[in-house]
Predict the structure of CobN/magnesium chelatase domain-containing protein.
Amino acid sequence: MQAEKKLAITVFSFPPDKGNVGTAAYLNVFASIFSVLSDLKKDGYNVEGLPETSEALIEEILHDKEAQFSSPNLNVVYKMGVREYQELTPYATALEENWGKPPGNLNSDGENLLVYGKQYGNVFIGVQPTFGYEGDPMRLLFSKSASPHHGFAAYYSFVEKVFKADAVLHFGTHGSLEFMPGKQVGMSDACFPDSLIGNIPNIYYYAANNPSEATIAKRRSYANTISYLTPPAENAGLYKGLKQLGELISSYQSLKDTGRGPQIVSTIISTARQCNLDKDVDLLYSKIMEIESRLLPCGLHVVGEPPSAMEAVATLVNIAALDRPEEGDCLKLVVADNELGSLKQALEGKFVEPGPGGDPIRNPKVLPTGKNIHALDPQSIPTEAAMQSAKVVVERLIERQKIDNGGNYPETVALVLWGTDNIKTYGESLGQVLWMIGVRPIADTFGRVNRVEPVSLEELGRPRIDVVVNCSGVFRDLFINQMNLLDRAVKMVAELDEPVEMNYVRKHALEQAETLGIDIREAATRIFSNASGSYSSNINLAVENSSWNDEKQLQDMYLSRKSFAFDSDAPGAGMMEKKKVFEMALSTADATFQNLDSSEISLTDVSHYFDSDPTNLVQSLRKDKKKPSAYIADTTTANAQVRTLSETVRLDARTKLLNPKWYEGMMSSGYEGVREIEKRLTNTVGWSATSGQVDNWVYEEANTTFIQDEEMMKRLMDMNPNSFRKLVQTFLEANGRGYWETSEDNIEKLRQLYSEVEDKIEGVDR
């Protein structure tokens, strides 16, 4: 029975480059596939010809033995002629508006559509074609609606109708299928995810800490998700100079009264300069404690391998550090492992136990993994506890802005609401918006929050702060009731009969109503997102593919994609473009603000954060062209902190990219690890592009660590030459775009390395 089952395992390549095949958040994809297939083989599945090791598996999918270097293409498993493609793909004509006649130039050789991957018995491992828009930012800029390209459609036609899969297993977080255009929920045959997945049962290994995007995979591609553990966090540990600095400071604490104080202080300051901590010197001791306690995911997870004893202990210590009402003993949950067991259940067509998604450190009920991920009741947020946390962060944010801004309150804060974060924190950042404008949410007897009431100015003790809220596409899909709540709240505050110097929402709405000749309620439009069915500003795609001319182009993308407003006065109208109000509201912002709520994901781990950052955009819209302050709240530890964006970028560089504990952890994963390092540098360039808040030394130190160190450079080049090439290219780009000033020697060396690794990849020996 098992021997006859056909399984199509699908991996992702994002951004599209051979060095990126098998991309997934926190997952060592090929080692995991190898572990899954070895296990299925024991159960009688036919995986004929499966290689002996996961390294050999990579080689075969990336091509013959030489692939890592010599061939530009992946292994082709099937060539589909145009006529066959049209017969198997009834919706092919609908793609022609965007992509012309098949075969097109993506996943094609000019005559046939190409399916990449490799078949082992009844198991096919395929590479999902890319989104298709990556190399062409102008299309991204103008495309309000888009569609999959012919190669993308051909892949799924092959899986369903040529290979005849009994199930598809999407491997890791996440692919493009479920983000293709169409309705947000309740798909119909006119929605592309529905057409693509066809009638194939869809099983999806998904990161346990990402419930909101898992929900989209379920709603839009009918996926049965199976959660996998994100690598346990370890404290960042201090390295090199920082370690020495930590010791000096603690010796100062104990010796400052013995007359040796002054010389220790001068040593501390010079060591601090070496570690680029001198900007933060007044806060030095706490700074060092902070780097020491930042939680770091160590290495990448392998499905079917429970964490080692050390890793389990690290996770437990972190779980214990956050105050929480209930304390079970969690150890057996951390080491229990049902990721493979649940997959087998699913392949038998049996029930997979559901469970909440989120950061296991915040919510131990996420463990053991291997569950079908669900989110929470979207009407129940923000909870009372979330409101309490929100108030603390808002007060700290306002205090910090007053210190940095001559004692003045910020009149407007531009901020981001993320879907996942609000699920994990039960609506903390949503609560922050409500508290800035000075209203409190009121729950009904069922605990559903569907109305708000103003907090009096006496109780608030400060002016009501205006907001410009950028909701992620995921937040818009999951929390439409909350968008309604927020929009009603802002408009209610704009209509309060209060002096404008105590109510900045009203102040700005009155000015904007007059300028634009509209009523005050419409002028108080502040809740924005993408058009329905569209996600992200696509700045991330442009940065990942280096396909942008200048910062203005990125800002135009943001404005054209993020200027769709929710209007509680027009029920059922969906998102409507209101670009003028959006621009005017942003032009009043004195500060930009985002939350980091999970120890696993920080600023440069993913491209979403800079993709949503409007700092430079606000500066270009402001009449005085003043750069707004940029802040990040970090609620990952028991003590919530508000830091500037540049402090956070520095902290992030020290705890991740430049920290031996982190990069050695990554490199122990081999091929995937190099890509993780490259991705961090690319995301750092993203921050330079959207905010200009990255210090020169971050690039300089990264160059010293990964390029100047001959041995390190060779390890990177040998492990994953394609990602290494991208790393070198990113250094050169950072310099070319004016984000990194360095010596001519460094640039010359990078140029030489680039042509060297090019030759190596093309298989040219000099």
Notes: Residues 384-404 form the longest helix (21 residues). Residues 316 and 331 are 7 Å apart (CA to CA). Residues 64-71, 324-328 have pLDDT under 50 and may be disordered. The two ends are 54 Å apart (CA to CA).
